[in-house]
Write a structure and sequence with these properties.
This protein has helices at 107-119, 147-154, 159-174, 212-220, 224-234, 236-247, and strands at 23-26, 32-35, 42-45, 58-59, 62-63, 74-77, 82-86, 90-94, 99-104, 129-133, 136-140, 144-146, 187-190, 195-197. With 248 residues, it is α+β, with helices and mostly antiparallel strands. The longest helix has 16 residues, at 159-174. It starts with 22 loop residues before the first strand and ends with a helix. Residues 1-74 have low confidence and may be disordered.
């Protein structure tokens, strides 16, 4: 299936690492700017992955002293963890073969994504949630490939994949997500061929019942016509709504 892929950009710098003393400072226009100090970072674990000691200053109203567990603490050096993704919202480190941790730059984004992941724990398309803290989420590490990479490489779309994408849209509706859309790079195909969706910060804040972004990207790959031909037979009601993107 290729090199494991998780969040957000696939062009990340392998040497990128956070440092200890990393902290957030509010600047003008109510935006957070990420700054870093000189020492190496450390996680603090309590009863598996429970607490994080990322900051020496205060963040989101919590002081770093409050984040340290009282029992069975174990320090993990950030430099020993591989960066498997980074973007404008945060940085993702791989902790184990099936777990990763996303450290967020902004409180608002953190809260939105956590809410969506928590709401989606009953669904197979949402990564498993293992733990979370004031500015981080420990979740399932998806071993596989993004749908964007997969389709660019294969240049064709199969009926079975179309069925899975339709089921994904059905799941988003069942979860009461107002945004039933995603980018192809945020749909991951694991080693078993199952689909998982990531980057859920707009799940409840964006109103998009039709997957316009997904359809537009399929059109750019010249796969939309083939995709819709399958949708027409599998889910005629979707076809009537979605074909407008191809006509536009």
């Amino acid at each position: 299936m290729g090199k494991p892929y998780f969040h957000y950009h696939d062009d990340h710098d392998e040497d990128y690492r956070l440092r200890k003393s990393a902290f957030f400072k509010r600047y003008a226009k109510k935006k957070y700017q990420f700054l870093s100090g000189k020492s190496s970072d450390q996680f603090v674990l309590s009863n598996s992955i429970k607490k994080i000691d990322l900051l020496n200053d205060k963040i989101f109203g919590h002081s770093s002293q409050k984040l340290i567990g009282e029992k069975e603490n174990k320090l993990i050096d950030f430099k020993k963890c591989e960066v498997v993704g980074k973007g404008k919202d945060g940085v993702i480190y791989q902790l184990t073969s099936n777990q990763c941790i996303k450290v967020f730059f902004k409180e608002e984004v953190y809260k939105r994504e956590l809410e969506a992941i928590q709401a989606g724990q009953s669904s197979s398309i949402i990564p498993r949630l293992y733990d979370y803290g004031p500015n981080y989420i420990v979740m399932e590490y998806i071993k596989g490939i993004s749908l964007a990479k997969y389709l660019k490489k294969n240049r064709q779309i199969t009926q079975s994949l179309v069925i899975k994408l339709i089921n994904l849209c059905d799941e988003l509706k069942k979860l009461n997500f107002s945004r039933r859309d995603t980018e192809l790079r945020h749909v991951l195909m694991n080693e078993q061929g199952n689909l998982k969706i990531i980057d859920l910060k707009r799940a409840f804040t964006s109103n998009r019942p039709i997957p316009i972004k997904l359809l537009t990207e399929l059109k750019e790959l010249k796969l939309l016509k083939e995709f819709l031909s399958y949708v027409k037979d599998i889910r005629p009601s979707f076809y009537q709504k979605w074909k407008k993107v191809n006509d536009g």
